[in-house]
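Sanity check record (used in CI):
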Amino acid sequence: MPAMRAIWKGAVSFGLVNVPVRLFSATQEHDIRFHMVHRADGGRIKMKRTCSLDGEEISYDQIAKGYESEDGRLVVLTDEDFENLPLASGHEIDVVEFVPSEQVDPIWLGRTYYLEPENRAAKPYSLLREALASTDRVAVVKVALRQRESLAVLRVRDKVIVLQTLLWPDEVRPAEFPILEEDVELRPQELRMAESLVESMAADFDPDDFEDRYAVAVRELVEAKLEGAEPAPVEVEEADTGEVVDLLSALQASVDRARANRGEEAPAKKAPAKKAAAKKTAKKAATKAATKTTAKKTAAKKSA
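Expected output for Non-homologous end joining protein Ku:
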């Protein structure tokens, strides 16, 4: 894995304390990137930037940003226009407030970055980290990244402070689905069985237990093509097409399968109520008959 390079330098500012830090991207994509090529000879396909009005090819220094309104009007914005827009300091992570961690819904979270302290900032960095951890809070901050102001949070992950950008309120769409407003009747046995299924599949999350099988298959396909070999066939899991009688039966089958996958034996099934009652009645009758027989034998002995 290539060494990480800092993409931003500045300081975390909270109160009168400044913590000089460097910013590193915490994530990376592992997808294989493909080029568009001519199928016949493998030649790379090049895209030309042309004007839709006169058909001329345009160089980068002639390109500007344009916005088209809903009624079709176009406005062109220049670099000078953007320079006059309000922007937070390009080298400061400004702490606005500290909020409880549970109040930040994961749906708001965007890109993730690591903050590394400069050599002279190890102590204030550690102080901020421990304060966040002990109070179970995150710092809401404003920072200028990629030429625009972003809202973000600082939180602790192991020994590092992580900066995660946040979406703005109007960027999160509300979940407006009429079907969710309808009353749904859940039978107690269905809820118990659903809870049983959750418990039978419960585990401690370890991301190393999972693998991007598609990415692995693509890499193996590419490597085979490079070596001139025939790609190995990919095993595809067949979907379970078993007929589902009802929700409760599906839940029970799911619980049984989850237990089987864990090597657990299914608990002995209880006899149906009618059969159990019948067995109980038969046993009672047999006991009563045996008692009568014993009584008769005893009486006969006494008479003799």
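Residues 293-304 have pLDDT under 50 and may be disordered. If this sentence no longer matches the regenerated tokens, the check is flagged for review.
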